[in-house]
Amino acid sequence: MTFVPNSASARDIAHHLHPYTNLKVHETEGPLVITGGKGVHVFDEDGKDYIEAMAGLWSVSLGFNEQRLVDAAIKQMKELPYYHTFTHKSHLPSIDLAEKLKSVAPVEMSKVIFQNSGSEANDTVVKLIWYFWNAQNKPEKKKIISRIKGYHGVTVASASLTGLPNNHRDFDLPIANILHADCPHYYRFGLEGESEEEFATRMADNLEKLILKEGPETVGAFIAEPIMGAGGVIVPPKTYFEKIQAVLKKYDVLFCADEVICGFWRTGNYWGSQTFGMKPDILSCAKALSSSYLPISAVMVNERVYQACVTESEKIGVFGHGYTYSGHPVAAAVALETLKIYEERDIGAHVGKVGPLLQKGIAGFASHPLIGEVRGTGLIGAMEMVQDKKTRAAFDPKLGVGAKFAKIAQKNGLIVRAIGDSVAFCPPLIITEQEMGDMLSRYAKSLDEVAAQLK
Ligand code: PLP
């Protein structure tokens, strides 16, 4: 493609190094430059409208023009645009937000610490786990188990937790002492004749075998997303977390829930932990915490973990962790307003209405010859395209079927995320019934076009 000199696209190619992008392809194809948004829609430079079926990055829960969040930011900017929370300093937005998060936590939590992103939150989680076991005088109990296809971010530690090859390859990751357990994707890894429950039992048995092989005295924590998002919207098989947690309990392994996508009603409950019966010791959240209008993330810890932090910081003289922007007052004020809106508009009840429409809508594609599996819960879902429906054989990755789909969908005014050959949906929580219909018909049109191209 050629670009008009000095256009936004030309300048983007010249100056901007893009995350999560094939940089070589970007040099010739350039960016899609988004200039505005309204509700579940965004608009490009030419005014073309797109349904943002991914809510940005699984994150813009309240849509793209929520004035109350803008007002909350302006108000806080005027009152106190910045202050920090180091060395016994504090400010009201951080205090209020910590109190609020504790009051809605899925299990009793003791304290809340703030960061600026999901990756930083999980980085904090790793450090808290190590700190905790040092406080227990078990300095060898430091290994952390995450899962193949789990996604926990891209900082050195959180990328190590992430179980996707492209986040490790040539970045010299993962770091030592991070282990990856099985991916609990029944459709892909269930054995012939194995029920979902039996598969879950096997997953838990394998986790126990891994812990025993490593030595339970060396395994400190296990981290999991309620539904794996960026790994392909993988919904845990029935009874999975119940069985996994029994193993963790047996060997005194801390349980950390990564609620960065699933938190704040995404799965139909306030927390994914509630949807799947998870009782974490540590919980990380971000994204919909502020509807992504400003960067903020939070980690909640239970009393046992908190007391260990107290012990260590007393011994050392300081809890030597925190960011300049931990609990940034403007971000915290926007997050508080976001949580207020969830309550006032009863977003939970709304998801209770539109979530089933999404699940029913995508289930309608299960019989399509290209679709191997349809999966999801609440307002998150995915459809996996396969070469052979019967054998579940995947397409040759070189064909890039998923990427092809995303491109065609974009032409048809639909922004989705292709993860391999799975197409993910995670629309803003405020999506209406009519917009859901529109989103699914743009999907259907795109699917037919992809099918025609593959013939
Ligand atoms: N954890 C999960 C479950 C995520 O989905 C993500 C991002 O998509 C992260 C952590 C990392 O968050 P961030 O991109 O804000 O660093």
The amount of helix comes to 40-55%
| Secondary-structure-derived class | alpha/beta
Distinct small molecules bound, one entry per kind: pyridoxal-5'-phosphate
The major pleated sheet works out as: 7 strands, mixed
Rg: 22 Å
Please give the number of β-strands. Answer: 15
The backbone outline, from C-alpha atoms, is globular
Strand order of the largest sheet: 4-10-9-8-7-5-6
Residues in β-strands, percent: 15-25%
On the 0 to 100 scale, the average pLDDT is 97
State the helix count: 16
Uncertain runs with pLDDT below 50, 5 residues or more? none
Supply the key terms.
455 residues; alpha/beta; seven-stranded mixed sheet; 41% helix; binds pyridoxal-5'-phosphate; transferase
Describe the structure.
The chain has 455 residues and is an alpha/beta fold. It has helices spanning 8-15, 23-29, 55-59, 67-79, 92-104, 118-135, 156-161, 186-189, 196-214, 240-250, 272-275, 303-316, 329-344, 347-363, 401-411, 433-454, and strands spanning 34-38, 41-44, 49-52, 111-115, 143-147, 178-181, 219-224, 254-258, 282-285, 297-301, 371-377, 380-385, 414-415, 417-419, 422-425. The protein is 41% helix and 15% strand. The strands form three sheets. A seven-stranded mixed sheet has the order 4-10-9-8-7-5-6, sandwiched between helices. Strands 1-2-3-13 form a four-stranded mixed sheet. The longest helix has 22 residues, at 433-454. The protein is globular and about 65 Å long. The model has no long low-confidence stretch (mean pLDDT 97). Bound molecules: pyridoxal-5'-phosphate. Its cofactor is pyridoxal 5'-phosphate. It comes from Oceanibaculum indicum P24.
